[in-house]
Amino acid sequence: MRQLSKADKAVFIINDSGELIHADEQARTLISETDVAERLSAVAEGFSSVLLSSGCAEVPYSVTCRHIQENGIRVIIFEDVCGRSELIRLASIGSIMPSIAHEMRNPLTGISVLLDDIHDRLTGKEDERRLIRMSIAEIERLERMLNDALVYSGGGSSVMFDENIGDILSEVLMLNHKLCTVNRIEVHGDISPDIPEILADGGKLRQAFHNLIINAVEAMPGGGNLTLSAYVSDGKINIHIKDTGYGIAEEKLHMIFEPFFTDKSEGSGIGLSVVREIIRMHGGEISVRSEIGKGTDFCITLNI
Q1: 174 with 197, same domain?
Q2: Are residues 107 and 238 both part of a single domain?
Q3: I want to staple 27 with a disulfide (CB 3.0 to 4.6 A). Which of 10, 34, 111, 170 is the partner?
């Protein structure tokens, strides 16, 4: 059953005989999918809520009835209670997410520092050092998930400064160089020195570029090539992050930026939606081209 949009209500108008004389688009949806038409007259007598049946499902709606003329014309408004409750629940999650992220990030950072210290002390014990590196990588993955969740929930403030996008891209490439080497991925950087500074939240842009690089690495489990290029064209900064991975099916391309969409066995499915949110936060746009078996090219444009 398709419920009402959370922002809309279904409006019916009936006459004094209980006959339906008008139904808006949302109301027509309910008529086609529920038993509402059979219950309008009864609802108009004073119900404040009602369960509408659709097959085996029942969905609660709040009901408001108003008399608009002396001749018995009544306006009946149905509002999806579940949708409204869901909005309240999501708003509550968003309000506490920054505190949760802060409380979780501190111990994760402490654990990572301690493991790194143990790793350096295990000279000559490569098997143990490898296990430590794997543990640190998992902690870093948790930290990325926290950062993504924080952006997605709307938590955390943006701090804008004049930032050199070329420098940020070079830094992100350098930080991910070891990851690419371990995964037999050859990195190619072509960043124009003529890219001007723009007002930006450098931390969030680093997160967005990092997410795209991680996405590219995961798309090349057998190794490959990662190319990051940036240049100025038509008054905009153009950034391409391109891999030679397994590619994305054409029928899935329009869904990859949607929250919680993923075809991977692991992951939250919000990484790319967070990237889009960050880019749009900066007044930019992101698009993607991909071909199965040949790879994927994410293109970002930022205004100068």
Answers
A1: yes
A2: no
A3: 10
